[in-house]
C-alpha cells in the first residue's frame, strides 16, 4: 500500500479504536511517525515494540506507523539501524499519538553490499518479473470493470518565502498572503484554487481494445472554471490510469519508461535493499535509478511479491533534472492487489506534481491526483457498441449533496482537506481573483459568456483583421450554450469591411438528435470573402493560422455564398459517418475564366459558377477519446492507433443551379509512435484523385505558408497557391528527440532544449484536360491568371530545429530541396531557406 493509503488507514484505525473503546474498552491504539531528529525526514521500516512483549510493528516508507494491542506495558521501544534506540512512556488510555525522533548513533555502520555471482540479486528478481509481466498485467484480461473515485487538488504555494536583503514580497505574493489558505505538509501556507471529486464506473475489454468510463457524479470548484461537462470528463479516471506493467507511462504527453518495462535493463540501475512485509506479504524492496540522471526516467522503489514475483507497490518520482517543463518533481505512489483472476490491479494511485517556479521569488503550484479502484471484477466483455462513447456523463451527474460524497469517498477527508473545500469557494469569489479567472476563461475558450441571455460572444481571435480587400475588418460572433438548450446549438457572425463596405455573415443551427450514439443534424449559410489556396478544408483545426490569413495582401480573392446541410452519426468501433449536401458559388475579384464542360450547350467562356456537392466522410479513430463540451464534441486525441479519414465528393450537375458534374476522393492517415529513448515520431500520409475536368479552384491546392511562423500541417516553404493538383500523394513527418543529444551536453543541459527534425514530400500532377480548361483571356479580353503544377519531381522540404526555448518557443531551420527556381504564378519569389518560429506551452 502507498503512504497515502496507510495514512488514511491510521485515521480509520483511530476511529475504529474509539468506537471499540466506547463499547468494550478492550484494545489500545498507538500511532504516529518516526523521524530523523536532525533532518525531520521520515525513517522507513523502523521497529516499534512494547517493552517486554513480542507485540510490535514497523513504520512505512514515510515513517508512519499504527499499532493496536490488547494490553499495554509501560513504554514503547523504537529502534532503527544507524540510530540510537529510544523508549517512550505509554499512558493507560485507548488511543495515543507518539511521534518518535531518533538521533543518529555515534558510530554509523558503513554500507556493505553482498552480491551473488553476476551482480546485485535485484537483477535476477527483475528479470523474472519482466518475464511474468503478461501473467499479471491487467491489460491482458479479456474484460473487467471497477468502481472509481478520483480527487484532484490544486494549490498555490511558496509565496511566503523570505526574500533576500529583507525585501518586501512582490505584489502577487502580497495578494496571496491576504487570501484564505490552508497549511501544507511542510507547514507553509497554501491557497487552494481547484478541487474536484468524481465517482464513475470503468469498463474495459480486449480484442478489440475498448474502454468506457460512465461518470455517475462529479463536482468541481476552482478559480476560472465552472462545474461543466468538459471539466467533469477531464477529472475522471480515464486520464489518471497508470500501468507500470506497460513499457512506458504517458504523463503530460511524455513517455516515461517503466522500471519493469521491456527496457528495464538498458535504462535503469537496480539494488536489492531489503525484504519487508507489504499487506502481510513478504516483498523484495528494490531501489532503481536512471543510468543517466538527465534521462526522462523514474527514480524510486518497487516492492515485489516474493511468492509470485509480481508488483505489490511502486514509489517513483521524476525530478527537475529530467526534461519536463514547469515540473520540479513528479511523484507516483501506487498499490497493487490481486484480482479474482490472479492478475494484479492498481487499487490506489496518487500522483503529486510540484511545479517549478518561473522565477526565484515567484509562487509555485502543487497538484495532487488520487485515484482508487474498488469492486474490481473480471467479467465477460460487453458488445463493442457498449463502449461508445468512451466517456459518458449520467444525466444527473451534477445532482449531489454532502451526504453522497461522505459515503462515496473510499476514506474520510482529513480536517485540512475539509478546510480546503471551504476555502476554495472563498478564494474564487475574491473580486480580483474572480476577474483573473474570467480572463483565463476568455483566453483559453475565446468566448465571453453572457449568462443573462445564455449566449457566448466570440471567438476573440477572429474579431479584427486588416487586409487590402476589406481594409479594417470587424467581426462579431455568438453562439448559444446549454442554458439556452441541450438540444439546439445556434451560432453565427456578422462582419464588415471599412474598405469594401461589404456585409458578410454566417448563420448555423445544429440539433442533437441523440447523445448515444452521438447523432446531429445541421444547416449553415455563409456569405464571406475567401481566398484560393486557404480554406477550411485544408487549414483544418488551425484557428490561429486561419485568423492570420485574413491579414495582409489577399491574392486571388473571391466572394462565396455557401449553403450546407449535414448529418453526422457515430457508428461504433471508432467509426463516425458524415453525409452532407453543399451548394456554393464562386464570385472572383480577380481576372478569372474557364471553359465549360463538354456537356454544356453554351461553350462561351465564363468567370463565375455554382456547384452542388454530395459529400460522404468516413472517419475511423479506434483509439480516440472524445469529450463533450456542453453541446459540442471535442477530440482529446489518440494515443496508440492511427486515425483514418476517407472523404468522397460527388458534384451534381443541374441540381440547385450547379454547373458541373465531377468526383473527388481523398484519404488521410495521422499517427504517432514512440521510438524508445529516441523520442516520438508524428506523421501524416495522404492521397487523392479528381478524375474530372473542372475549374482550378475546385482542384486540390496544397496549403502553403508565407508567414514567419511554422505551421505543422502546411508546406512551410511553399507559397500560397503555388501548386494545384488533380492527383496527389503526400507525407509529412516530424520527429522530436526530446532532448536526447542536448541533455548530454553540459553547457546545454540546463536549457532543456529539444531537437526536432521535419520532412514534407508532395507528388502529384494535373491532367491535360484541366490545364486546357483555362483560356488565355476572359470574355472581355483580359488576360487570365493560370496556375502551376508539379512535374514528375516531388516537392521536398526538410528541416531541423530547437524546441522548448524558454519553455514556449520553437525555432525551425527549413530547406527547400526542389523547385527552388520555380516561376510561380503568384508573383511571390520562392524562398529556398527560411527560419520560422512557433510557440506553445508544452511539458
TrEMBL record:
InterPro entries per the UniProt record, alphabetical: CarboxyPept-like_regulatory, DUF5686
Molecular function GO labels: carboxypeptidase activity
UniProt key word Oxidoreductase: no
Alphabetized SUPFAM superfamilies for the sequence: Carboxypeptidase regulatory domain-like (SSF49464)
Organism phylogeny: Bacteria, Pseudomonadati, Bacteroidota, Cytophagia, Cytophagales
Name listed for the protein in its UniProt record: Carboxypeptidase-like protein
Transmembrane annotation, as ranges: none
Domain of life from the UniProt record: Bacteria
Keyword line: Carboxypeptidase, Hydrolase, Protease, Signal
Signal sequence range: 1-24
The UniProt record lists the keyword Signal: yes
A Pfam family hit: CarbopepD_reg_2
Amino acid at each position: 500500500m502507498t503512504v497515502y493509503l496507510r495514512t488514511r488507514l491510521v485515521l480509520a484505525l483511530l476511529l475504529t479504536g474509539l468506537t471499540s473503546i466506547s463499547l468494550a474498552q478492550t484494545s489500545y491504539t498507538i500511532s504516529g511517525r518516526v523521524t530523523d531528529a536532525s533532518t525531520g525526514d521520515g525513517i522507513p521500516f523502523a521497529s516499534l515494540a512494547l517493552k517486554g512483549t513480542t507485540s510490535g510493528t514497523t513504520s512505512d516508507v514515510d515513517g508512519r506507523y499504527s499499532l493496536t494491542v490488547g494490553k499495554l506495558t509501560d513504554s514503547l521501544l523504537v529502534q532503527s539501524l544507524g540510530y540510537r534506540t529510544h523508549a517512550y512512556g505509554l499512558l493507560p488510555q485507548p488511543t495515543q499519538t507518539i511521534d518518535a525522533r531518533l538521533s543518529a548513533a555515534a558510530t554509523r555502520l558503513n554500507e556493505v553490499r553482498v552480491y551473488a555471482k553476476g551482480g546485485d540479486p535485484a537483477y535476477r528478481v527483475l528479470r523474472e518479473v519482466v518475464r511474468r509481466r503478461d501473467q499479471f498485467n491487467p491489460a491482458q484480461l479479456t474484460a473487467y470493470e471497477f468502481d472509481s473515485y478520483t480527487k484532484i487538488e490544486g494549490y498555490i504555494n511558496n509565496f511566503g518565502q523570505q526574500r533576500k536583503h529583507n525585501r518586501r514580497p512582490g505584489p502577487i505574493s502580497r495578494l496571496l498572503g491576504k487570501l484564505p489558505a490552508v497549511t501544507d505538509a511542510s507547514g507553509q501556507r497554501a491557497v487552494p484554487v481547484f478541487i474536484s471529486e468524481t465517482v464513475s464506473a470503468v469498463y474495459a475489454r480486449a480484442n478489440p481494445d475498448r474502454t468506457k468510463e460512465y461518470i455517475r457524479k462529479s463536482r468541481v470548484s476552482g478559480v476560472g472554471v465552472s462545474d461543466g461537462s468538459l471539466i467533469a470528463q477531464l477529472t475522471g479516471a480515464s486520464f489518471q490510469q497508470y500501468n507500470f506493467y506497460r513499457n512506458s507511462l504517458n504523463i503530460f504527453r511524455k513517455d516515461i519508461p517503466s522500471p519493469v518495462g521491456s527496457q528495464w535493463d538498458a535504462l535503469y540501475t537496480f539494488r536489492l535493499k531489503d525484504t519487508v512485509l507489504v499487506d502481510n506479504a513478504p516483498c523484495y524492496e528494490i531501489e532503481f535509478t536512471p543510468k543517466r540522471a538527465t534521462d526522462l526516467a523514474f527514480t524510486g522503489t518497487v516492492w515485489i511479491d516474493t511468492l509470485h514475483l509480481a508488483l505489490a507497490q511502486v514509489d517513483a518520482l521524476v525530478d527537475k533534472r529530467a526534461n519536463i517543463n514547469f515540473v520540479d518533481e513528479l511523484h507516483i505512489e501506487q498499490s497493487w492487489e490481486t484480482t479474482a483472476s490472479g492478475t494484479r490491479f492498481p487499487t490506489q494511485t496518487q500522483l503529486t506534481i510540484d511545479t517549478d517556479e518561473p522565477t526565484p521569488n515567484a509562487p509555485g503550484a502543487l497538484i495532487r491526483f488520487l485515484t482508487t479502484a474498488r469492486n474490481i471484477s473480471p467479467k465477460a466483455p460487453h458488445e463493442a457498441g457498449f463502449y461508445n462513447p468512451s466517456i459518458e456523463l449520467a444525466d444527473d451527474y451534477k445532482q449531489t449533496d454532502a451526504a453522497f460524497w461522505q459515503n462515496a469517498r473510499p476514506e474520510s477527508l482529513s480536517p485540512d482537506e475539509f478546510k480546503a473545500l471551504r476555502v476554495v469557494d472563498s478564494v474564487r469569489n475574491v473580486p480580483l481573483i474572480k476577474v483573473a479567472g474570467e480572463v483565463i476563461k476568455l483566453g483559453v475558450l475565446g468566448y465571453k459568456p453572457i449568462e443573462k441571455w445564455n449566449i457566448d460572444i466570440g471567438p476573440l481571435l477572429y474579431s479584427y483583421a486588416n487586409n487590402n480587400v476589406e481594409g479594417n475588418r470587424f467581426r462579431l460572433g455568438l453562439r448559444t450554450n446549454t442554458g439556452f438548450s441541450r438540444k439546439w446549438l445556434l451560432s453565427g457572425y456578422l462582419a464588415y469591411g471599412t474598405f469594401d463596405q461589404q456585409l458578410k455573415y454566417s448563420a448555423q443551427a445544429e440539433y442533437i438528435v441523440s447523445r448515444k450514439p452521438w447523432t446531429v443534424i445541421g444547416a449553415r449559410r455563409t456569405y464571406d470573402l475567401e481566398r484560393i489556396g486557404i480554406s477550411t478544408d485544408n487549414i483544418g483545426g488551425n484557428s490561429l493560422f486561419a485568423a492570420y490569413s485574413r491579414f495582409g495582401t489577399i491574392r486571388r480573392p473571391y466572394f462565396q455564398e455557401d449553403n450546407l446541410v449535414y448529418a453526422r452519426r457515430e457508428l461504433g468501433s471508432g467509426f463516425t459517418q458524415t453525409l452532407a449536401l453543399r451548394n456554393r458559388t464562386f464570385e472572383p475579384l480577380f481576372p478569372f475564366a474557364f471553359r465549360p464542360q463538354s456537356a454544356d450547350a453554351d461553350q462561351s467562356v465564363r468567370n463565375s459558377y455554382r456547384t452542388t456537392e454530395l459529400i460522404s466522410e468516413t472517419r475511423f479513430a479506434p483509439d480516440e477519446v472524445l469529450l463533450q463540451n456542453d453541446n459540442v464534441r471535442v477530440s482529446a486525441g489518440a494515443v496508440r492507433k492511427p486515425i483514418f479519414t476517407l472523404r468522397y465528393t460527388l458534384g451534381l450537375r443541374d441540381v440547385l443551379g450547379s454547373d458541373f458534374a465531377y468526383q473527388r476522393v481523398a484519404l488521410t492517415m495521422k499517427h504517432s509512435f514512440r521510438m524508445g529513448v529516441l523520442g516520438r515520431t508524428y506523421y501524416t500520409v495522404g492521397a487523392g484523385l479528381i478524375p474530372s475536368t473542372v475549374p482550378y479552384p475546385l482542384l486540390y491546392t496544397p496549403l502553403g505558408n508565407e508567414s514567419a511562423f511554422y505551421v505543422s500541417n502546411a508546406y512551410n516553404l511553399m507559397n500560397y497557391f503555388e501548386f494545384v493538383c488533380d492527383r496527389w500523394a503526400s507525407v509529412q513527418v516530424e520527429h522530436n528527440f526530446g532532448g536526447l543529444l542536448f541533455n548530454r551536453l553540459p553547457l546545454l543541459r540546463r536549457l532543456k532544449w529539444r531537437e526536432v527534425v521535419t520532412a514534407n514530400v508532395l507528388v502529384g500532377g494535373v491532367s491535360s484536360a484541366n490545364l486546357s480548361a483555362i483560356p488565355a483571356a476572359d470574355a472581355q479580353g483580359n488576360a487570365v491568371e493560370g496556375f502551376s503544377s508539379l512535374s514528375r519531381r516531388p516537392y521536398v522540404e526538410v528541416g531541423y530545429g530547437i524546441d522548448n526555448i524558454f519553455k514556449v518557443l520553437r525555432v525551425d531551420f527549413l530547406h527547400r530541396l526542389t523547385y527552388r527556381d520555380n516561376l510561380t504564378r503568384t508573383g511571390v519569389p520562392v524562398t529556398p531557406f527560411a527560419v520560422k518560429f512557433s510557440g506553445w506551452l508544452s511539458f
